[in-house]
Amino acid sequence: MRIFVAGATGAIGRHLVPLLVQDGHDVVGATRTPEGVESLHAMGAQGVLLDVLDAEDVVRAVTEHTPDIVMHQLTSLAAGNPADNARIRIEGTRNLVDAAKRADVSRIVAQSISWAYGPDTGPAGEHDPLDVNAVQPRATTIGGIQALESAVAELPRHVVLRYGTLYGPGTWFAPGGLMAAKLAAGQLPANDGVSSFVHVQDAAQAAVRALDWPDGPVNIVDDEPAPARAWVPVLAQALGAPAPEASSGGAGWERGADNSLARSRGWQPEHPSWRTGFGAQG
User: Given CA atoms 18, 21, 23, 26 in this order, what sign does their dihedral have?
Assistant: First the structure.
């Protein structure tokens, strides 16, 4: 198949594109920089410069390359600003879906998140509601996710990958990344709030498998949702940083997510737990 990957040089995209090429797909990767285009060529894909916030630019790129499927891996995380990421999810997704319609593309696989569910007890499943009553600043993130998932569902075939917190090369959890800085500054609490993680390589593998999955959302998380008081010390050890004292507290939506549906469809994470995965981020 010809696959158009938006966000092809991001944290997941740089792992995803080689996998798609290896499987024999004709891959067109969109990126924001000339360096990204060169990187995509080195991966065996065609690279195109694209500003996803420019609707005409997106229509031009998608219609020119006539893909069979659009793969949406767009984020804006470098500055750590939720508003920037929400804008990409709202405007970038809108432009991508509209371009797919113009090009008669009926299938899309899109990146979402697994910590957008509403407060409750136990890991969230795909049928649990999103946190539509969230207040700021979380409301900005949830609004972006709602807009993304609603737009994607306008296409006849759509899979939404609700990824856990990403770790591995190119993420905030990698050595020298944002979380290492937070640990050093004593700004990462080891409390009761529960998270679910997924290694970027496992996230990319899930995207490849999702090409043939039924429509709808799927949680892509590892096997062990855990409170911060459990995972923060393990991360600190892996990064050679001081571990904070355990504390209480945590929001009701910090509950982790269940991966049973993804596993039932054949996805098996190479890193089934952050316990071993944090130390293998090299």
Answer: positive
